[in-house]
Specification:
Belongs to the queuine tRNA-ribosyltransferase family. Its EC number is 2.4.2.29. Keywords: Glycosyltransferase, Metal-binding, Queuosine biosynthesis, Transferase, tRNA processing, Zinc. It catalyses: 7-aminomethyl-7-carbaguanine + guanosine(34) in tRNA = 7-aminomethyl-7-carbaguanosine(34) in tRNA + guanine. This protein has 2 domains: 276 residues, Queuine tRNA-ribosyltransferase-like (TIM Barrel, Alpha-Beta Barrel), CATH 3.20.20; 54 residues, no CATH class. Helix 6 packs across helix 7. It is α/β, with parallel strands linked by helices. The mean pLDDT is 95. 40% of the residues lie in helices and 20% in strands. Strand 1 and strand 2 form a beta hairpin.
Length: 374
């Protein structure tokens, strides 16, 4: 047993409430997943993430492969134990990070040869190797190795990228199914194992996206992601792609949009029927002093907050807003104190996770189709 997906409620707009039963956690969806690139959601301790209600976080295969190394993590009991995170976890395939190394990589049918951004050393990722690394890391959910299509990309480029992604998806799935029982979990999980999601690509071409989704569904992955978004395209195109692909994905499996987005985006996509989303925005923006609040975005570094004794967000009940003033948060940023990035990140994550909690309640309240638990 790996993943069980129980659909609880649906709405006329396509929104859905579900429970995703994973080895380490039952995740209530729709869910926002904080990004923990190198085994840490930047600047935020794991116990704080738990107190905020984070159900599932991400680990980055490329970065963890480079350091400390997947075999080191395997010997230490897997990523859950290594970072002391008892709840659910997903690892990406490394494909997006390799894609971002535009001048340090060479793509062939077999895989990608790339140079480390750390020391220039040469490495090779094939679909099989990506899966081997992810099995060693031991997250609840693995991702198929894909080739992320850049924006803008002409049709010939998108077709070639799709060809690679489909071939690599088949190889990823076959290798995963042959080796998924090799995951090492020291916890008593009663024979449960990992799951694998396929990734829909195809650039901004609707017919290529449809082809990608249909072919992946035929392969019968445990869940499906929509990738290749938030790579510089206008938001209207992002919405078009999601609207095109969602109806093609199975209703009885999780649907994940990768790398999105701002608060209003994740709220919109959740109401459309997206089950899972992730993004670095809440923590990255926080480190630069940008706070998301019920009153809009706040650049806490602005001088107007120098003597503001109010909380970052008067409507927020997070541990930061209960205790600290805008004036103090601004002071920390002005002094470049690390605590500033931590407190800002905690607030932003609380805001994002609170949005999803609110959407889940709204979808349940407005459900047109209650679905009996299986």
């Amino acid at each position: 047993m790996s993943l069980a997906f129980n659909l609880l409620h649906t709405t006329g707009s396509g929104g859905r409430r579900a429970q995703m039963h994973l080895p380490h956690q039952t995740v209530e969806t729709p869910v926002f997943m904080p990004v923990g690139t190198a085994g840490t959601v930047k600047a935020v301790p794991q116990d704080v993430l738990e107190s905020l209600g984070a159900q599932i976080i991400l680990g980055n295969t490329y970065h963890l492969y480079l350091r400390p190394g997947h075999e080191v993590i395997r010997r230490l009991g897997g990523l859950h134990r290594f970072i002391s995170w008892p709840r659910a976890m997903l690892t990406d395939s490394g494909g997006f990070q390799v894609y971002s190394l535009a001048h340090l990589r060479k793509v062939t049918d077999e895989g990608v040869r790339f140079r480390s951004h750390l020391d220039g050393s040469s490495h090779f990722f094939s679909p099989e190797h990506s899966i081997d690394v992810q099995i060693a890391l031991g997250a609840d959910i693995c991702m198929a190795f894909d080739e992320c299509t850049e924006y803008p990309a002409d049709r010939a480029r998108a077709e070639e990228s799709l060809r690679l992604t489909m071939a690599w998806a088949r190889r990823s799935l076959d290798h995963f199914r042959a080796h998924q029982d090799e995951v090492v979990w020291n916890d008593n999980l009663n024979g449960k194992t990992q799951s694998i999601f396929g990734i829909v690509q195809g650039g901004m071409f609707a017919d290529l996206r449809r082809e990608s989704a249909e072919r992946l569904v035929e392969m019968d992955f445990d869940g499906y992601a929509i990738g290749g978004l938030s790579v510089g395209e206008p938001r209207e195109l992002t919405l078009e792609v999601i609207s095109e692909v969602l109806p093609l994905l199975p209703k009885d499996k999780p649907r994940y949009v990768m790398g999105v987005g701002f608060p209003d985006e994740i709220e919109l996509y959740a109401r459309m029927g997206v089950d899972m989303m992730d993004c670095v925005i809440p923590t990255r923006a926080a480190r630069h002093g940008l706070l998301f609040t019920s009153q809009g975005r706040v650049n806490i570094k602005n001088k107007q907050y120098a003597e503001d004794q109010g909380p970052a967000d008067p409507a927020c009940d997070c541990m930061v807003c209960r205790r600290y003033s805008r004036a103090y948060l601004r002071h920390l940023m002005q002094c470049k104190e690390p605590l500033g990035g931590t407190l800002n990140s905690i607030h932003n994550l609380a805001y994002y996770l609170g949005i999803m909690q609110g959407v889940r309640a709204e979808l349940a309240a407005n459900a047109e189709t209650p679905v009996a638990k299986s």
